[in-house]
């Protein structure tokens, strides 16, 4: 049996998992990420990997971005500081563990897991969108992540769909993340005077007849459908898979988005539109990292 190591470096915690070639997670260890010193985190990762007494073929890893995937470097990230910025994370870890390391962003890895072992495993062209705290995406063609010319393909959060539309944080006004993500839904509701803790509660109010909440939820579905219709036109994927808490926890969300997409494409394309829920759990990023390690 061969094994891969999957690593998810987050702004708060780092997860390291040992995954076999059947994509079963055999061991999983989590520890706090040192937000100021990448070398401290690299050394902890090495200690964990050294404790895996298995035939490890390689390592797949995700980090907060944006990333320079061409050279395996973290460019900048809001939740990690100091020496993390400009850190060649791929090369530095390879030098420590003497195993090949492949860096990807978390949405691309989730997309890869969906395309290899998830809902899209029987498809050649799979588009993935995670609609959660933020909005991320990944495109997988013939079981390989499409990175684009510079490694920034599917960095979609700032894609502007709504002139002078809502914004939050550093997201451009009218960017898709500022309309459709869970954070966007929650913040728009709070700005409108609604007392809510998350997007699910906004949806609950909408179902109870609250007009403001319904408008916010309708906007999220409509603009996401507009965006997916554009993807259908440009990419012609066999399947679009939606993951993340908004897509998975709000009843009927994915089904309604699919129906809207079919209204926004050519009639001959509508029967080919497939918008599906992710069938993988919160471990999709780790599983995708294992897929990447095995494929390389």
TrEMBL record:
<dbReference type="InterPro" id="IPR043129">
    <property type="entry name" value="ATPase_NBD"/>
</dbReference>
<dbReference type="Pfam" id="PF00480">
    <property type="entry name" value="ROK"/>
</dbReference>
<protein>
    <submittedName>
        <fullName>ROK family protein</fullName>
    </submittedName>
</protein>
<dbReference type="InterPro" id="IPR000600">
    <property type="entry name" value="ROK"/>
</dbReference>
<comment type="similarity">
    <text>Belongs to the ROK (NagC/XylR) family.</text>
</comment>
